[in-house]
Amino acid sequence: MGMPAPRNSAEDAFRAGFRLWLRRNAPRADAVTGAPKTGYSDAESVERARNWQRKLHRAGHIAEAWPQALGDEASSFSRRMIVQQELIAARAPALIGESGLRRVAPLLLRLAAAEQRARFLDRIASGEDLWCIAEIEAGVSPETIALEDGETIVVSGRKRSMPMATIADWILCLARCHSATPGSLFEFCWLAIPSRSPGVQIPGRSSINDDAASADLVFTGVRVPRENLIGHIPGWDAARATADPEGQTLAADPTATRLHFDDLLRLARRKSRAGLRVLRDPVVRQRLAELATRLDAVECFAQRVLAAALSNRPDQDAAAQATRELAKADRDICRLALEILGLPGGLVRRPTARQVPETAWVEEHLAALARLALASPRLHPTSPAMPKTLAARPPFGFDGRQARLSSAADQPAAARRK
Amino acid sequence: MNQIALDAADLAVLRNINERLASTAEGAAPEAESVLLHGVAASTHPPRRGVAGPETESLLLHENTARKVPWAGVFLPHDVGGLGGGMREAVLLLYATGRSLLSPSLLSSAILAPRLLEQLGTPRQRAEWLPRLARGESAATICWRDEDDRLDPSGITIRGRRARNQLRLSGQKLFVPDAGRADLLLVVCRTSGRAGAAVGISVCLVPTITAGVHCRPLLQVDPVRRLFEVRFDDVALEPQSVLGREGQAWRVLDRLGDAAAIGLAAESLGGLERVLELCSDEREGSPAARAALDEASDRIAPALALLLDAARACEARARDAAKRAAGIKALVGDLFVSVAESALAMNSAAQPEVRGWLARAQSQRALYGAPEVQRERYATLSGW
Fold it and tell me: How many Å lie between the alpha carbon of B365 and the closest alpha carbon of chain A?
């Protein structure tokens, strides 16, 4: 099955042009494995990735990767899809500033004041500022508290396994807001917090995939200027304001998973066990065929999701479902690859010049698990399931948890006394 | 989610089918309910000639359906009195009827057999049988599988031998659907060539009233959709009983096998959805089973999308049609069984019905190529 593609001559020409540009300009994602590298393990890899985004920005291709609402006239969903598909097909590095492009920018456009937009947007596009979206917590809904204190807002709480947390310049933090004025409660707000602010701690990399720069974030009485409050809307709308419907639909694109499967097939063709090509092993053939049929099904479904979006009939629930199924397929592809690899696959985490390149599958497996965790409907705050959960709870401050929240509210004052 | 998997035209066809099915089902439930609850095949009709065992309510239901709506006619061309429906309509019909535990399968008698007659028959054979099938006056079914469940020509071992000016048929066919109610059997046999070769496979037209034809219902897990063993004791046939050109049937049969796999997957998918609906509000029972059901429900819309894609590929005789058919049959066959097993573990109030669905799932998993067979076929067709 080919990649879902918009069919008209202008789009075809755009695809061909961008493909040519990539052939001339794109660095290989990973010189050792040839596979797209998912993480940013050191300063050097981060800088390389920033340079790649700058290059795309200078060539005018970031505009195509923006959500439609932000792009220029030429930008459209179909072009954004083409850019994504061609980047993946060329095995070019992912955009390091993707979370900024995909989620922070739409939020700024919807909620931010003109000066906030001017301050942040261009730096997001060029990759000068990297953003981390801090939203997921141990419970279903955010318990991170933002307290008004004069001209500053004091933030306390803990966020779980936030991608980009270790390398981001800015944190976009979702918090429950509590005003000092009685009766002026509003539920959620988004705050732009500089990642190096006093009180922001990273207690160690906690994600399953530590190469992807994910980590927990702890906020202990972090003081944020009021000008960094990216507006607020009472209730759940504030959280959903970051949803990028186009981006969520594009996450259902199966191109990357199909590439993964092709890599797995190549591995099975190349490897031998007990004098027999792994691909001839009846058990492996069954597992490969089972994976392939699942992938065929998700591809068919994803094509319909993308086709509907191209016809201005986007379906976010269907896109989320396709994304989950693709993440599961990715996980199982990597799992089978590790089984085929045997001992080196299970023991070696990073390939070196002397090791077989396929050891990168370990990293891919961990990255796939991280993607699956993020695609889980329970964890994702913009998931349609979430508002129901929240709606079932009494309004903030009236549900018997007042005492605990009050003591949390006292914390910044205590911290100040220290 | 199905609104994405099905386009507007698919939904319109499905709505039409459901309306017709709703009007057909009136009055059929009480008899069928007894089959469900007791799992007993009660004899309600005198057996036809050649039918050795008791018939089931599924026969009654099927005749009821056939009398009111001759589904076979929907899939036959206009020139023989049909409505010219294609694979898409067939798949949507089977998907809709598959949701009912009590409805008979229309796959063999309404879709495969008329299609085989239409594609392989001589003008005379078509003129003789197709208008009758389109009007619902006759019913035909295919006797395809021998004991071996191989999907290639080596699975066909029963032979038709020339003797004077006749073709003599001996042997037995297994797992024949609808043999108890059919007037006409389309028997796949080898009339020439070496074992395993594609050339030499023919299809013979054998009226069920022919001397030497014996049908016996098999004791099976699914009490509603009965399968038969059909024995041929030196059955004498006229030379013109061979459908189309003698020894040249395999190419059409191979494609029909894809249609059968897709059709059965459609029925299974409908059943699978129904089982999930039965357990949708059930919060008691095993958490592991609940998790498995939730996981399975995410896979329905993708499977439906692949099913329709396979149907289109099959209709267009696309190069990857066989691969698509093998894929969807394997995918849905396993998923249906695992969903029915998990549903049973939920220990819900609908457990008697769920038990019936598990039987249906096991039966459909095995027919027209079990998932293991289809996956190996997929791998081979993919050039692995």
Answer: 15
